[in-house]
Design goal:
single chain, alpha/beta, TIM Barrel, nine-stranded mixed β-sheet, three-stranded antiparallel β-sheet, 14 helices, 36% helix
């Protein structure tokens, strides 16, 4: 019998002592008279006499705070097995199409070398279709990406028609700035099998237009809102994810966008429409003080909850999927010339090309293997022993890969790290307020 390394006892600021297990995700409050008992158990779980505390003992066992010897190692092995099974499964093919590198925006935090770019040709499209046939996967997941994918809308329609003619089962999503999403294009989304859209609004009109403007410098905010309104008037069956790129300059405006969308679309909010933060980061950002590292991300989430009763991301730890294109065996990013990458951030960087869609004998297997296994959190001794391991998933694997060579390491840790106590306390208070509201409603 041992106290699990994935168990944590802490004192919250307002609600006393609490216990949390990252392995079982169990959460319990500790009474004052139980505290010395629990501390005694933590010090010597094998030798402690549980005769006078049988119920507490059963709780600690049931919730995973007390575990049999070897159980923590067993959890690690099960997590590793599930992770690798997911990564090496060949049933699904995951493709992100950088269908064009051209963009009609010139966002202040974008560091693409050129916004002119070029789109995918008919010749490359033909090669892409053969590439998809080669894998013969049961399921296909597609994301339309860019540049701005709506600049290549005809190519998206063409590839979609050919996939349908092939009889391929697939779903698709699109990451767009929304400026070119006319009502006519929005009406075609269902036929394109698009089940989700991501559109970015970076705060209030003045802030957004100062950050996300056309290549000629003209504003974009009003047109995007008009297009969202037009989208919601169609029979689009998918979901709209409104992303707010958050950094140290506009973090307070996330709440504005959240409340605005909630008020404009009360029936669809939380169901067809969600609003979430995207944390700005990048090696060449001119103002590194604007970055939100994982600790600051957690502080931002707690701040939104305390000030506005908004949970932009989970405030209660969830098991996170560590799978991304970089780590998946059958996951690729396809550039407009048919070049292959293993991460969205690599598009246009020649050194990061791992192959091409028309050949299978010229792939950079060393670079592919480095992303899949060479920087894996599963082989990191520090990660294995970390309390947050069961709810982490290793963070961003591209950051982990960059850290292999970087002098200045970036953190890829989960945002709960450094903020767990505050976020759990907020979750506890939220649950208590919901219970009280429920009791009042029952009592009339």
């Amino acid at each position: 019998m041992k106290w699990s390394r994935y168990s944590k006892l802490f004192k919250s600021k307002r609600n006393g002592w609490m216990l949390f297990s990252s392995a079982s995700r169990a959460f319990m409050c500790v009474k004052d008279d139980e505290l010395p008992v629990i501390r005694g158990i933590m010090e010597d779980p094998e030798g402690y006499d549980y005769t006078d505390v049988p119920m507490l003992y059963m709780q600690l066992r049931a919730y995973g705070f007390l575990v049999e010897d070897g159980k923590d190692e067993e959890l690690y092995n099960i997590t590793k097995m599930r992770h690798l099974t997911n990564l090496y499964a060949d049933r699904a093919l995951t493709l992100t199409f950088a269908i064009t590198t051209a963009c009609n925006f010139d966002c202040s935090y974008c560091f693409e070398t050129s916004h002119k770019g070029h789109g995918m040709s008919q010749e490359v499209e033909d090669k892409v279709m053969n590439f998809i046939r080669h894998f013969n996967s049961d399921v296909l997941h597609i994301t339309w990406y860019g540049g701005e994918p709506l600049l290549a809308f005809d190519r998206i329609c063409s590839i979609t028609r050919r996939l349908n003619d092939m009889g391929k089962k697939y779903d698709a999503g699109m990451i767009t700035n929304g400026y070119l999403l006319t009502k006519e294009r929005a009406a075609k989304l269902n036929d394109l099998n698009i089940t989700y859209l991501q559109i970015t609004l970076d705060g209030k009109k003045e802030t957004h237009d100062a950050r996300r403007y056309l290549t000629g410098g003209l504003p974009t905010y009003d047109r995007i809102l008009e297009n969202i309104e037009g989208l919601m008037q169609t029979n689009f069956k998918g979901k709209l994810h409104v992303r707010v790129n958050v950094d140290g300059r506009n973090s307070e405006e996330f709440a504005y966008v959240y409340k605005m969308m909630q008020e404009k679309y009360p029936k669809d909010f939380g169901r067809r429409i969600t609003v979430y933060p995207g944390f700005v980061k990048g090696d060449s950002h001119p103002d590194r003080g604007c970055f939100f590292d994982p600790v600051q991300q957690g502080e931002f989430i707690a701040d939104m909850m305390e000030k506005y009763q908004i949970a932009p991301l989970n405030i209660y730890p969830q098991r996170m999927s560590p799978a991304c294109v970089l780590t998946k065996r059958n996951g690729f990013v396809i550039g407009p010339e048919g070049e292959l990458y293993k991460c969205w951030d690599d598009v246009g960087i020649k050194e990061r090309v791992v192959g091409t869609v028309d050949r299978f004998d010229n792939w950079n297997m060393g670079l592919i293997a480095e992303g899949m296994t060479g920087c894996s959190f599963l082989d990191d001794p520090e990660c294995k022993e970390c309390f947050y391991f069961p709810v982490c998933g290793g963070g961003c694997h591209r950051i982990r890969q960059k850290n292999l060579r970087a002098e200045e390491k970036q953190s890829s840790c989960v945002y709960f790290k450094g903020n767990l106590e505050n976020l759990l306390e907020l979750f506890y208070e939220y649950k208590m307020s919901r219970q009280q509201a429920g009791r009042k409603e029952q009592n009339g």
